[in-house]
Amino acid sequence: MTPEHLQLLVNREMPFGKYKGRLIADLPGHYLGWFAREGFPSGELGKLIALMYELDHNALRHLLDPLRPPK
Fold first, then answer.
1. pTM given for the model
2. Which InterPro entries match (predicted)?
3. Are 48 and 58 spatial neighbours (Cβ–Cβ below 8 Å)?
4. Among the four 9, 36, 37, 53, which has the fewest Cβ within 10 Å?
5. Under 8 Å CB-to-CB from 38, ≥6 apart: which residues?
């Protein structure tokens, strides 16, 4: 994990599925858990979803708050 990976979580959108268009950082825990059980996609997207799963599972989502772009 690098700071760049954390920044991608708050800038990259989910490219497919039920939550298409939603930021990876905003994916619900049950969806992240589904990927953890069924398998993460290959490549960078899978690594980002796996990282977000770890943050969610360990109640560390708040660490992303300072990285979010201002509204």
1. 0.92
2. QSregVF_b (IPR024530)
3. no
4. 37
5. none
How would you write the chain as a 3-class SS string? CCHHHHHHHCCCECCCCCCCCCEHHHCCHHHHHHHHHHCCCCHHHHHHHHHHHHHHHCCCHHHHHHHCCCC
Instruction: Go through the chain and tell me how many residues it has.
Output: 71
For the record, the structure tokens of 35 come out as 């990927």
Distance CA 69, CA 71 (A): 6
Q: What is the pLDDT of residue 20?
A: 97
**pLDDT confidence of residue 58:** 97
What CA–CA distances, in Å, run from 19 to 3, 32, 64, 70?
24, 11, 19, 22
* Averages of pLDDT over each 10 residues, the chain, 71 residues: 91 95 97 97 96 97 91 73
